[in-house]
Amino acid sequence: MASKSFYAVVAGVGAGTGRSVALRFARSYPVVLLARKPESYSGIVSEIKQQGGQAFGISTDTSDPQSVASAFEAIKKELPDKKLAAAIFNVGPGFAVKPFLELTASDLDTSLSGNARGLFNFAQSTLPSLLDAVPTSPNPPSLIITGATASVRGSARFATFAAGKFAVRALSQSLAREFGPKGVHVAHVIVDGVIDIPRTKGWTVNEGVEDGKISADAIAESYWHLHTQHRSSFTHELDLRPYVEKF
Amino acid sequence: MASKSFYAVVAGVGAGTGRSVALRFARSYPVVLLARKPESYSGIVSEIKQQGGQAFGISTDTSDPQSVASAFEAIKKELPDKKLAAAIFNVGPGFAVKPFLELTASDLDTSLSGNARGLFNFAQSTLPSLLDAVPTSPNPPSLIITGATASVRGSARFATFAAGKFAVRALSQSLAREFGPKGVHVAHVIVDGVIDIPRTKGWTVNEGVEDGKISADAIAESYWHLHTQHRSSFTHELDLRPYVEKF
Amino acid sequence: MASKSFYAVVAGVGAGTGRSVALRFARSYPVVLLARKPESYSGIVSEIKQQGGQAFGISTDTSDPQSVASAFEAIKKELPDKKLAAAIFNVGPGFAVKPFLELTASDLDTSLSGNARGLFNFAQSTLPSLLDAVPTSPNPPSLIITGATASVRGSARFATFAAGKFAVRALSQSLAREFGPKGVHVAHVIVDGVIDIPRTKGWTVNEGVEDGKISADAIAESYWHLHTQHRSSFTHELDLRPYVEKF
Amino acid sequence: MASKSFYAVVAGVGAGTGRSVALRFARSYPVVLLARKPESYSGIVSEIKQQGGQAFGISTDTSDPQSVASAFEAIKKELPDKKLAAAIFNVGPGFAVKPFLELTASDLDTSLSGNARGLFNFAQSTLPSLLDAVPTSPNPPSLIITGATASVRGSARFATFAAGKFAVRALSQSLAREFGPKGVHVAHVIVDGVIDIPRTKGWTVNEGVEDGKISADAIAESYWHLHTQHRSSFTHELDLRPYVEKF
């Protein structure tokens, strides 16, 4: 059932989770796609339209508060009568995997900025809208955040990456505890495995067994489930991993 | 899409989670209900039949290996051609909340027996059948286990209850790690709040706000989601709590 | 500074942690050793006496409430004027490591009984004495419990062992929360590695590097540190593992 | 036993943990104190000298890589023949406790910078020296990091503070896993309560009971214990809280 009065926004779209989540939510809502470059979202916009959905993209750098503010002003102009039912933060800045003494201050900044600052900006722009949608939204307005193994484990050689991901999880928990009682569902999803996307096609993971990489569409189904959970029964953190993954 | 070739079994049905899970899974499978006494399952069997589903109950004490073995022999006779797609362990033995020095060896035994021994027996009887269903089941064959706040937190005055619930979680983790790679989805669900059932109607929780108690039907939706997750993207533990719950 | 008015009791002594803890605490207190068989404690009693300490052993099966009660009656006769400053539960029943479907009800019972029931009995007998020592003990009266990796992780093939260890941790947490505010320090120690004892001499762990197995004396130092922590700064759970251990 | 060949450095000294740790480690090592302003360390330097220890301070902003690099050059000149046995990161930048929508980008930056960037800089400057001390140090060279409740829990209204503290914990874990096998003991300490210092004198915590605030000297004893743990038995994370603290 597509809603005429609500929309969804997905920050961080490309070939994997972001695309699948956008397509999944587009079955019910017009979807706004945020990515740094048009080439990251334009193909997905076309796919959604081909399937009868409504979508557009805005070039946005979520680590920059001005860029995020501009994006949401543009959304307001484009969708003046719609309220925000779901906001997905799926931004994954590139990261360095190196011995600690080879990491630089810039590696740390990239991680903190792309992850923590990105979510901070995105949450500050979306939470007022999500709160506004609480009384009327068909599903509890949701802020869903993509995490990784590094969100809960600081592995050797992943120091700066884990720093950014842990910080995102901290923000997510704090937001869940502050905005949950106001009716907004904030959920953090730990994607614990390699996602099956064009970039990882050649990688051998889990001994190469079938379904040893995570289907991005499967992730999207779980995001949709989170969004549709009744408010008496919220999940605040979810792990997703292949059946063959060691954990 | 109701499956003609598969069935589900729910151990521990009554007025809450068990009933809702049985009704939910009955939309796709014939469901077998296990409870100690017929009065716990007979009404649910009727409800399922009224809704066009197929169900029957067997009086079973899951803490007794003989009783469990008999139940599964009876199921085999009743459903000779069906494979097991989903097994839900939702047994919640009564428990004592008392200062530690007032707890007795019998309080501890009740908890260990009803929880840990119950799941042990149930898992030993269901896992061979779940494994057998892997190649053909429309969804990954699933063993889903109900936990509680006490599964992850030993609170003061809950010593024996927590002992049983922690033990169940240990078994669940071990089974998830052993049987996941074989295609069976084992998931443990932490129900962190009071469920809205007749017995809790008079209780004031979360200051009595609307939806401050967990809807059993909402829990059932999440169990169904776990069951339908693609095997490349399993969740092994799930928290469920009201939007207003402190955590 | 050896205390004349207080004593310590160690349940579960043999060649490893129990022995080292007994020797360490014997530098300050008379120590009572509990083990099923005299051959497990008699050598340690001699060692303690040779070093000028005071010690005796009592053959006790901690999984049997009667046996534990008898032991503490015997202690009362032997040390009529002493209060209990420290109780260490270090019981480690033998355990099965097997595929789940090869484990038996008896494997589960051995683990639940030796671990959970053992601690339950020991705690019921020692906590009244520990409470009694609060006003006068030179260090906060302490109940220290030995755990293992399986206390926090249910690995494949360790289902029943983990069930018992998780249950022990549940009891420990509950006791810490109930008795901490009354001045008794309850701490759970996760020994995450192989201990360097005669039985493990031939085992190659951590590629055989020096100090790749845990020194039991080092564990004992940490137990002593826990015992001597100021009550404004208690640690309730402690991990111990070799510098080269993967975690 | 004071070592002539090794020294310790404590970053973040003032009236609480930093001072007590400096005094404790000064019983065995010359100690270098880092703080932004001389008034934070000069009194402690005097105290240490009065007790027969050796100490000096350097005005340092740990969030600034240049400032940290200068400090360690100054140390090298001052203590040319000494190796680094222990480095303690105890920096606690001021933090905002506010509803999320009132927090600013600057609140987030303060937390990320003072916490994560501070530890990053400090670790990059100290780890080479700690590694250098491995073969000869009387105790395993140690990097000990002070955390808080907010290191493991993102509470409502603590979003930015928790982001910084989670990031520090991520770095700590990663360093522990990379440098542990090389002989350096990296440990993260979660101080879960209010410390008893002049600034908190007027605060009523834990209903004002005696020892309801954490003694900074008690914290220092646990840091010293961490430093002296045998390398076969390292603790990588430690909680410290008053006996009456809810947890």
UniProtKB/TrEMBL annotation, chains A, B, C, D:
Gene3D superfamilies: NAD(P)-binding Rossmann-like Domain. It comes from the Eukaryota. InterPro entries: NAD(P)-bd_dom_sf (IPR036291), SDR_fam (IPR002347). PANTHER family: OXIDOREDUCTASE, SHORT CHAIN DEHYDROGENASE/REDUCTASE FAMILY (AFU_ORTHOLOGUE AFUA_5G14000), OXIDOREDUCTASE, SHORT CHAIN DEHYDROGENASE_REDUCTASE FAMILY (AFU_ORTHOLOGUE AFUA_5G14000). This is Diacetyl reductase [(S)-acetoin forming]. It comes from Madurella mycetomatis.
